[in-house]
Amino acid sequence: MKIEKLFDLEHTLAKDYLNEFTYPWEALRGIKNMILQLGPTLINRGYKEISKNVWVHESAIIAPTAYLGEPCIIGPNTEVRHCAFIRGSALVGADCVVGNSVELKNVILFDHVQTPHYNYVGDSILGYKSHMGAGSITSNVRSDKKLIIVHSDPEIETGLKKFGAMLGDYVEVGCNSVLNPGTVVGRHTNIYPTTCVRGVIPEKSIVKNSGVIISKF
Q: pLDDT tens, 157-190?
């Protein structure tokens, strides 16, 4: 569950920021301030401030119907497609896809992340080359509105009311899956379509929609 076990920090502008923490969800509270501090430093690196506190790389492709709320950063060669809704506090890396009708809020997307179709990603961090299948979402608030616990052994109280999912590098999430609040998925894991995921999933696993988890090796 620790940051160094989930992510290769060479693939995000948030490297220095994430290095301040042990567990990735500890970074959720400060994403907005991190982006506000980082954005102005990017002006001489190919980024333009296209509106207040919205920095977009000159090579990024932004559909005219997309909404970019402040603050946010959109990296090189990233495509933000029609009707994407970036509510704010979103750091989107290089070579990413933010697809049609996708909503992002308080997130870090590492380089080469794909959220291409009808995804909601909130209060979450998606590692390098992770992919959200069509219609898959992060659920970031408990139905009873209590603070979120990471269900591991032992359980960890996060002190957070909003916490979606932490996806390690190369995680594949199948179509129409739901990642419940406080989900942590290890690197190189595949999640079957229509699966409801909860708790900590070991790296290099396959999560079946029956709830069964098996190792790839």
A: 999 999 999 999 999 999 999 999 999 999 999 9
The listed CATH number (3.40.47.10, 2.160.10.10, 2.60.40.1760, 3.40.50.1110) that belongs to domain 3-215: 2.160.10.10
In angstroms, the CA 207 to CA 103 distance is 25
d(CA 103, CA 87): 7
- DSSP assignment of the chain: --HHHH--GGG-TTHHHHTT-SSGGGGGGGHHHHHHHHGGGGGGGTEEEEETTEEEETT-EE-TT-EEPSSEEE-TT-EE-TT-EEEEEEEE-TT-EEEET-EEEEEEE-TT-EEEES-EEEEEEE-TT-EEPTT-EE--S-TT-PPPEE-SSS-EE---S---EEE-TT-EE-TT-EE-TTEEE-TT-EE-TT-EE-SEE-SSEEE-TTS-EEE--
Q: Among 137, 73, 66, which Cα is nearest to 111's?
A: 73
Report pLDDT digits (tens) over 77-98: 999 999 999 999 999 999 999 9
What pTM value is reported for the model? Answer: 0.96
Residue 68: name the closest of 78, 48, 54 by CA. Answer: 54
Residue 205's identity, in one-letter code, is: S
Q: pLDDT band at residue 209, thresholds of 50, 70 and 90? A: confident
